[in-house]
């Protein structure tokens, strides 16, 4: 979904302060099509020039052959929710949680993040969850306005189709809220990610301490809500994404038919398709495929779905998301580089491809005129080590 809001308002909404000049030299610059030894100069938060050669001009930082690449762009992470609720029913003060989340992401090389917040509540004493997104979004936006964040933050609303209050909660957001992404979530038991109820039971009973009766109630409740609200909620969420000017994403597509429906809805990218069939259908429709970094690092899906490596080998992987492990994003990109024998293509999966999918044209590549978000990386064997992170030329980690 191409959006004038994304191409203007979001891309021009800068975060934090800017350093006057940052000069990194004697670096292996990861460009779009090659790795080049050279230097990069960032002036007033913007890449001014890139030059080839190993010279270290006076005043420049000698990177000693370390990689310098674009700052990572994260489209889907639940990490903020982990900080505000570090354990089930343990609520942490929100400002310290926001700042800890921001600092953690910066330390891993992420310079742009779309923070995923769930919209759509379930009113049940045992298996439900309540509304929180609007309040937390207000706090996040206020923190950004005060210049307290190290990196650039946007909102990603996870629209839970199986809920009772989805449309009411989405109505509380508007184009001014930096909602960059809306993803359509359908967690109906027996479908998509949780086709295997055994996997679902293991997940929710551990996370929520359910017994067998609680789990049975949970499954029945979700199925009833999907039957009652599913079609209206999906159509409403698509309409709300258009109203915000947000990119629409599908989630856990499993069949070609589901991907066909995603394409009709105007989906821009697919989050974590669960089968090779769905990924192939996405490719046929021109829908970018996102897979989770933990899936790639661990060698498979924790839910028993298709392996990210399988899709990468079949050239059906475009974007990587850290999902629930921020540090996995850079690590997975280097593992992908080994698999493809192509570092620029792998780094594009966590930078340029992500930015493009989200409608951001001012970042994600090392090129003159783009935003000065860069990271310095050294390797220890096959493990990347973050040596420095700059957001708009300002060092943040």
From TrEMBL:
<dbReference type="InterPro" id="IPR011059">
    <property type="entry name" value="Metal-dep_hydrolase_composite"/>
</dbReference>
<dbReference type="InterPro" id="IPR012696">
    <property type="entry name" value="PhnM"/>
</dbReference>
<dbReference type="InterPro" id="IPR032466">
    <property type="entry name" value="Metal_Hydrolase"/>
</dbReference>
<dbReference type="InterPro" id="IPR051781">
    <property type="entry name" value="Metallo-dep_Hydrolase"/>
</dbReference>
<protein>
    <submittedName>
        <fullName>Phosphonate metabolism protein PhnM</fullName>
    </submittedName>
</protein>
